[in-house]
Amino acid sequence: MSKCKSLIWPKVILFGDSITQGSFQANGWGSAIADKLARKCDVLNRGLSGYNSRWGRIVLPRMVNEEEAGNIAAVTVFFGANDCALQDKNSQQHVPLDEYSENLKAISKYLTAAGVPAGKVIFITPPPIHEAAWEKECKLKGCPLNRLNSVAGQYAQACVQAASHCGADVLDLWTLMQKDGQQRTAGQHGRSTGGMMPGGAPTEQNNREDAWEARRWTTEQNEWDPQCRADPAGTQK
Hints:
The chain has 237 residues and is α/β, with parallel strands linked by helices. It is 32% helix and 11% strand.
């Protein structure tokens, strides 16, 4: 009896923080991508709640190696929402702007060296922050407001510039979600980006639906605390 050759689907790797980790929840953007790519690609969730670009850069070699790089169709790199935490309010997760940019470039450089061309890498900027709603969440945890939308915008711009430097694609969520002058902030785990199609652009319909609720991150599941625990992986030097 002849042996059938196994089918191996190309992989799409979603790499990032809690917005990525929770993206496979109901109506999540990760689950939407997996649905769109059914029978075409295996979509792998490699989101790490609480992580910033510094820790992501450290663990990336344990997630992507040369042996599997040839079968990777795309990698999304979605950090910045924790990096942009205010240093004096959340020093554990805060990453200086210049270091954030260099971390993204290093992540892209590693992927290229491993065999994933820059054209298969998609940077995603941090989304905007609804400060009033986020401040309420912080107060519930007994800490002051530790993120500002204007600062998130600086990190978003740095992400766009890093993508241009590396030759990677970029999805500027911070700008897209505010493009009509009405701030729409990502819901818990970024469910609001359920309209983000694999091509890299959120659909206008979903941009305008109630999915753009105040970002709640992962506090409801107690996966992440605005007070911020130290390096979840114990990787910080």
